[in-house]
Amino acid sequence: MMTTAKTNPSLFVSTSNDKPKLLTISFASDPSASLGAQLLSHDKGLVEDMFNPAYASILRLVDGETIAKKSGVAIGDAIVAVNGEGFRRLAPEYDESQLEHITAAVNGISLHNNNNNNNNENSGNDDEDAKKQKNRVVSENKNNESYNLLLTKIKSIKKAADPKQPLLLSLERYGWDSKVNAWRRFLIARNGDVAAATKMMTAHTTWKHKTFPIDISDQNVQNVIQSKSVCEIDVPKNDLPPTVYVNFAKLQELDSHEGVVKAFIICTETLLARASDPRFPLTCQFIDLSNVRIASGFRVDILKQVYGAFEPNYPETLSKMVMYPVSKMVASTASMMLNFVNENTRKKFIITDNLEKVCQELGWDKKEVDECGGITQFMHRHEK
CA nearest 68: which of 81, 58, 78? Predict the structure, then answer.
């Protein structure tokens, strides 16, 4: 499902930004319960944690009906405060009033700080003090020292088991393309060079401001969408990343290719937003070359346009790109035609004429593909 602007449904907005969503978890119903999650420390002095606001985030959720699952905790959520006491690496960039609270109440207990004594002339000062305390930045000298302080605080509250003071965890949820989660990808794309990664991410931010929102009603975009030449393939795949399908023969038949890049961005953004772990958003790409002659009828300029937007703005989000069918004799020619792609990305290319390999790589059922009458017909069955 596409993310469109609330005021104008024909405008597609980016599926991720830097504003976090807020979540508060209460242990009032079961003070002795565990959260039901494994934590990840961001207090190890790693460059990849440069923009992380917290010393601990959710690494994974354990099985069972846990408080974490009942409360809607997700992988990547950052723990920034415990019972109103901040344990932050970085000060918040947005005032809480600007952010969306995705948990208004848990087990019937209000989780917002409400002061019922409206006549108390000091209530404003009290609220301001509470805000400062919640936004407190902790900075210890040794690695994992601040992380351990956070854990100690949590354990001490649980040990006290005071029903009037149950454990309350304040978490922030950041999108897949927020700098909190995206920085690691840009850093990898620039081989750990902080200056180069910073420059790349800054350019990406500028590009986003210029690119979004995308007008879905634009005829060039509609031509691509309606032709299904770029679309999502909805096939259950056992934890494999979702697939962007590109029918190259249909693309080449279009009168104008101006909408191709925009349609590709829309599809990619939509799929990346569904990643179960926002730190590792991935998609696969399947380039259907049926009825396309590589030697004489392959419009490599179309791929160059897509690559020009994809590579600098969605680094490390490609799991693999499968091009099929391409005979072994023509595969080397295809590889040479794609020499504009950087080496790391080329390693993710699979150029083949082996249908069984395609199904293996993308998690598709070859028997179903055969029953459909071929790969293109199988795509038609599952395209969205």
Answer: 58
Helix or strand run (H / E) with residue 41? strand 37-41
Distance (Å, rounded) from C-alpha 245 to C-alpha 242?
Answer: 10
**Tokens representing residue 300 in the block:** 């490599």
- What was the pLDDT predicted at 55? 98
Residue 28 amino acid letter:
A
pTM for the model: 0.91
Query: Quick count: other Cβ atoms within 10 Å of Cβ 216?
Result: 19
Cα separation of 103 and 29, whole Å?
A: 16
The number of beta carbons lying within 10 Å of the beta carbon of residue 6 is 7
d(CA 365, CA 237): 9
Residue 338: C-alpha distances to residues 245, 260, 263 (Å): 18, 18, 21
* Closest residue by Cα to residue 61 from 38, 87, 94, 27: 38
Characterize 346-355 residue by residue with b for buried, 16 or more Cβ atoms within 10 angstroms of its Cβ, and e for exposed: eeebbbbbeb
pLDDT tens per residue, range 116-142: 444 444 556 778 999 999 999 999 889
Instruction: Point out which residues pair with 85 in neighbouring strands.
Output: 82
- Residue whose entry in the numeric block shows the structure tokens 């597609």: 12
Q: Which residues pair with 25 in a beta bridge?
A: 169
Please choose, from the candidates 92, 276, 278, 118, the residue with its C-alpha nearest in 3D space to the C-alpha of residue 185: 278
Closest residue by Cα to residue 83 from 32, 128, 26, 35 = 26
Classify residue 32 by burial, with Cβ atoms within 10 Å: 0-12, 13-18, 19+: exposed
